[in-house]
Design brief:
Largest sheet: 4 strands, mixed
Helix content: 10-25%
Strand order of the largest sheet: 6-7-11-10
Shape: elongated
Structural class: alpha+beta
Order of helices and strands: HHEEEEEEEHEEEE
Number of helices: 3
Distance between the termini: 107 Å
Length: about 180
């Protein structure tokens, strides 16, 4: 009866069939370290899902493809772009963190954008057309006479990724 117990024991053998798996696990631990990098993106680049040049920790420059509608703080994993393994294993990955650059014109408010639009006293009183900068060029707004400059004008769908809105704050600029 002892022999059948031994046969049952062999089925449980922790080394049976696991040697290949053990080696794979070990090879991975000999791989290179992951490294971190930061990609700086403008609000104009964010919705397009384009590429941004990124200097890797190794010194080489890669064009990193951004996912569509990339968000501030989003992370992108670049397989095999990390540090080289000193033991000849697979190189590590690079984890790229996306940071939005401060924009000279636009202020972010979630998916909405805010922009200041200078107008003259004459335009505020009599009305007229003003150009408002947007992420994809500019839009023309018609101001009614005696406009309330305390309220921002909303351009629907002109925010980040076309989801948010663009709020134009009218600032009266007096002539020199």
């Amino acid at each position: 009866g002892g022999r059948t117990g031994g046969g049952g024991g062999r089925g449980w053998d922790p080394f049976a069939g696991s040697s290949a798996g053990g080696l794979q696990g070990r090879a991975q631990s000999f791989g290179g370290e992951d490294s971190n990098a930061t990609a700086t993106v403008t609000p104009e680049q964010a919705p397009q899902g384009g590429s941004v040049p990124l200097r890797m920790p190794s010194g080489k420059v890669l064009n990193v493809k951004l996912p569509d509608k990339v968000e501030d703080g989003q992370q992108i994993r670049l397989k095999g772009q990390g540090q080289v393994s000193p033991w000849g294993g697979e190189p590590g990955d690079t984890i790229v963190t996306v940071k939005f650059e401060r924009h000279p014109k636009f202020r972010r408010d979630g998916a909405d954008l805010r922009v200041d639009v200078p107008i003259t006293l004459y335009e505020a009183v009599l009305g007229g057309k003003v150009r408002v900068p947007t992420l994809d060029g500019s839009a023309e707004l018609t101001l009614p006479p005696n406009i309330n400059t305390a309220k921002a004008l909303r351009l629907k769908g002109k925010g980040l990724h076309g989801n948010g809105d663009l709020y134009a704050s009218l600032k009266i600029v007096l002539p020199e």
